[in-house]
């Protein structure tokens, strides 16, 4: 009973109900007046045609276009009004302008860095460098193949902090994992270390008390809730900070799939065994991750007066010729950086492609690239969960898996539970790892961060992790898709049509 009451009084539930109420009022208005108000119906039909033509000419993904055009054909009056309503889920003009301004500040700082290249993957490196994500040498890394490994290494590095600690997460949960981290942060704050914590207000809404940011502030930390949820018409539910970044003293940085919660270290079992992966880097490339954090912090605080140079602490060089390129995505520049690196890696692969994907909701370009690679003789492997955390999303993921399997892609289910790592390894030589899922939200709507690398030592560890995970996984065959009943297939088809919203 207590859990039910907590669910009803949760901010996410309240805002969800208000959002449904708004949509319900819109539906009532349309069908209360559409039957008797001929002109409303006529005007909506005209608007539907105009909007459909406009949508077709926009530079958006074809799946987005198809979804909205079909919606307006099936429900002409409601579809038009709902499209206009849904499109208010965008950043305001002032917020978009602020985000672009902060982006330019980071870009100006990154232009000061002389990029370095490795000719084998020159296209990928130049693409990122041209977007002001420079390539670095003199950087080393440690691959972290579990939440337990990440927590151990993170605590060790936090305890060595002397100047600052920056933490940015989609989800922070009151948990044993957080308690261990918080204890170190409190001690470091007493020693004069500057600590900044940023978490997504939507992602953490059911995990943290409403006023938890004030509690952290009283402890002496600088705290930001990204895009705080408020009761108004424009909820901007899709504009979320899905990044996972920790930077310590501009010396080391962490990223990967891990949020903060006991499921990530398997102290709490929610969907079987939680399989995740991340990476820690040390050296020159850390500065790029420091700036990614400061860019988003400055946007969130509406503060463009930060002295970035004071955080660019220098250390004796780490001698390493491997290339590292940290990069990020923001939804206002339309660059789709992570998506394009996925495409680069897939299209450039000659022998093998290894992918882990908790959510397999593909746009047409990535699906086509994967199928083309498999049909061209590249050995393409994708591991997805066997136990879903979101059932409707999982149904859609399986429909895309079926499409890939028919084209020769080898898709596997991780039998022990849920795989949450987000990475792709090309020919066991180049890789990307970070926060971006293979779905529309990550690639089109959210703030994300990732790392491109070609360090053979680290990639060898990533390959070992992948191949071990493969042994714990079961390959999906075409026969597996014949067992679905007609109702399941219909629901799956409808959900796939609206996959850009999932």
Walkthrough of the structure:
The protein has helices spanning 2-9, 11-33, 38-57, 62-74, 76-86, 93-110, 122-130, 147-158, 176-190, 212-218, 286-301, 337-348, 364-375, 391-405, 440-445, 456-471, 486-497; strands spanning 139-144, 164-169, 194-200, 222-226, 245-248, 252-256, 273-275, 278-283, 324-329, 352-356, 379-385, 410-414, 417-419, 423-426, 430-434, 448-453, 473-475. The protein is α/β, with parallel strands linked by helices and 502 residues long. The strands form three sheets. Strands 9-16-15-14-10-11-12-17 form an eight-stranded mixed beta sheet, sandwiched between helices. Strand 2 (164-169), helix 9 and strand 3 (194-200) form a beta-alpha-beta unit.
Task: Give the secondary structure arrangement, pairings included.
Blueprint: H1 2-9, H2 11-33, H3 38-57, H4 62-74, H5 76-86, H6 93-110, H7 122-130, E1 139-144, H8 147-158, E2 164-169, H9 176-190, E3 194-200, H10 212-218, E4 222-226, E5 245-248, E6 252-256, E7 273-275, E8 278-283, H11 286-301, E9 324-329, H12 337-348, E10 352-356, H13 364-375, E11 379-385, H14 391-405, E12 410-414, E13 417-419, E14 423-426, E15 430-434, H15 440-445, E16 448-453, H16 456-471, E17 473-475, H17 486-497
Parallel strand pairs: 2-3, 3-4, 7-13, 10-11, 11-12
Antiparallel strand pairs: 1-8, 2-5, 5-6, 6-8, 9-16, 10-14, 12-17, 14-15, 15-16
